[in-house]
Amino acid sequence: MALVNNNYVLAETESTSHPVETGIDITDHVQRKPITLSVSGVIADTSSKKATDIINNIKKLQTEGSLIKYVGRVSIGNMQIQSFTCDYEYTNKGGCS
Questions:
Q1: Is the dihedral of CA 30, 6, 67, 93 positive or negative?
Q2: What is the C-alpha to C-alpha distance for residues 65 and 55, in angstroms, rounded to an integer?
Q3: pLDDT tier for residue 7 given thresholds of 50, 70 and 90
Q4: What's the CA gap between 39 and 78, in Å, rounded?
Q5: What's the distance, CA 26 to chain centroid?
Q6: CA triplet 90, 4, 69: central angle to 5 degrees?
Q7: pTM of the model
C-alpha cells in the first residue's frame, strides 16, 4: 500500500498454484487484483453547491455502480465506489468529514 498525497493506493496480484505428485507446487499465472484507493477529506458547502447535494450525488454514483475517474496526484479511471462513510460533526454545518 502506498500513501500518495494523503490517499492510500493498494495494487496487488494473486498467483495460482497447483499441486504436483512430487516436488513443490507449480504457479502457472499471475492475476491482478482490483486497485483499491482510499480517500479522506471534508465535504462542505460551496458558493455553487450544497454539501448535501454533493453527498447525495456520491451515494447515487455508488448505488448505480457508475464508473468514475479519480483525478488527484494520480489519475485512475474505470473505478467504482465500494464504500462511502460520513461523520456528521457539529463543526461542519450541512457537510461531513
A1: positive
A2: 15
A3: low
A4: 16
A5: 33
A6: 80
A7: 0.67
Contact 66, 23 (CB under 8 A): no
Tell me how far apart the alpha carbons of residues 37 and 39 are, in angstroms, rounded to a whole number.
Answer: 6
In whole angstroms, give the CA distance from residue 1 to residue 33: 13
DSSP state at residue 84: -
End-to-end CA distance of the chain: 23
**Cell of residue 74, nine digits:** 494520480
Q: What cell does 91 get? A: 463543526
Assess contact for 92 and 44: CB atoms under 8 A: yes
Backbone angles phi, psi at 62, to 5 degrees: -70, -50
